Amino acid sequence: MRNILLLLEHKQNRNLLSQLLQQVGYEVIYPSPDDDLSNLHNSFDLCILGPVALDKFSDWVKATKKAEEPVFLPFLFITSRSDVKMITRGLWKTIDELITNPIEKVELQVRIEALLQRRELSLKLKDANEHLHNLNELKSRFISVASHEFRNPLHVILAYAQILYRGGEKLNSEKKKEFFTRIKSSAKKMNDTLDDVLILTKGELTLQKLNLQFLNLQEFCRLLVAEIKVGSAANQEINFTIQGQSKKAYFDENLLRHILTNLLTNAIKYSPLGTKVDFDLIIQDTKIIFEIKDAGIGIPLKDQSSLFESFRRASNVGKIPGTGLGLAIVKQSVDLHGGTIEVDSEVGIGTTFTVILPLIKGVDENS
Q1: What is the pLDDT of residue 27?
Q2: pLDDT tens digits, one per residue of 144-153
Q3: SS3 of 352, please?
Q4: Cα atoms in the Cβ-side hemisphere of radius 13 Å centred on 247
Q5: How far is it, in rounded angstroms, from Cα 153 to Cα 159?
Q6: Has residue 362 got a pLDDT over 60?
Q7: What 8-state DSSP symbol labels residue 171?
Q8: Which alpha helices (DSSP H) does the chain contain, by range?
Q9: DSSP per residue over 82-103, as a string?
Q10: Cα–chain center distance at 89
Q11: 216 strand-pairing partners
C-alpha cells in the first residue's frame, strides 16, 4: 500500500480528500500542527500540500526531495485558480505537479497515479543500479581473489608439470608420485577456492534458495566428524556430544554442511597439535544449537566485528593459509536458515562459535 502525506490547512478539505484517497486504496498520513516533519522521512510516497503549507515548509520540501535523490519523491500542490500565476513563479524547482480547486476526483486520481508510477520507476531504476554496482564489486573481488589465491598453486602445477614433461623418464616412481600428489593438491586448492567464491556470489546476488529436507542431525553430525577426521592431516580429536532428545527437522543439507565443515576445519587449523575440539549438538524444543570450541590462537577483539565479511582474516593468522571466505559463507548460510551465529574468543585461549538455527518440525519427525 502506498502512503500519501496530506499538508492542507483547512480541516474540512483535508478530511474530504482523506476519505477520497482511502476509498481508492491509499494509506493517508496527516500530521498535527505540532508534529516534527523531519520524523516523517521515508514514511510517505507522495505529499499533497496547499499554499500555507508550501510557504511554511518550503525548506523542508527541498531538503526532503534532496535526501531522496536519485529516487523521485513527488509533491502535488493544490491551489485556487486565481492564485496559480502568482504562486507558481519558480515553483517547479520544488513542486512536481499542480491541481486547482475545485478538484475533479478523476483528474486528481490520474495525477496521483502518474506521480506514483514515476516514483515506482525511479525505485526500480535505483535497485537496478545497485544490482549492477554489486555485480561490478563481485567481479572486482573475484578477480582480486583469483589473482592472489590462484597464483601460487598455479605456479606449483606449471613447475611440476614442466619437470615431468622435460625429464619425467629420469625420475623414479616415488618421485613421480610425489610430484603428481603436489599437482593434485594445488588443483584441489584452486577448485575449492573457486567453489567458495561461487557459493558466496550466488548468495550475495540472492540467487541462493533453501532446499529444506528432513535430516537425522545426530547421524549427519557423526558422519561429518568422521569425514573431517579422515581428511585432516593434523589428526586432532573432535569430541562430539549430544544433548536433548532425537528429532528430525528441516534443514538445507548442503548449507548445513558448509556451516559445520568450515567451523570444524577452522577450529582444527588454528589449534595447536595435541589439543582437542569440542563439538556440542544441543537439541531444544524450538531451536538447534551447534557449539564448536577450540583451544587455538583466538581472534583479536579488533578483528571480531569484521569476521564474517568476505576476504577478511584475523590479523594474527600469520602464514596459516586461508582465503577469508569460509566464515562469510557460514554467516550467509546461517542467515538463509533464519538463524544466528555468535563468537566468543580470546587470543591465546581459544574460540567458541555458537550457531542457533530455528527448529522447523515435520509431520513425520517421530517416524
Answers
A1: 92
A2: 666 666 777 8
A3: strand
A4: 22
A5: 10
A6: no
A7: S
A8: 11-23, 51-68, 84-87, 105-149, 151-167, 173-204, 217-231, 253-269, 301-304, 326-336
A9: GGHHHHTTTGGGT-SEEEEESP
A10: 47
A11: 248
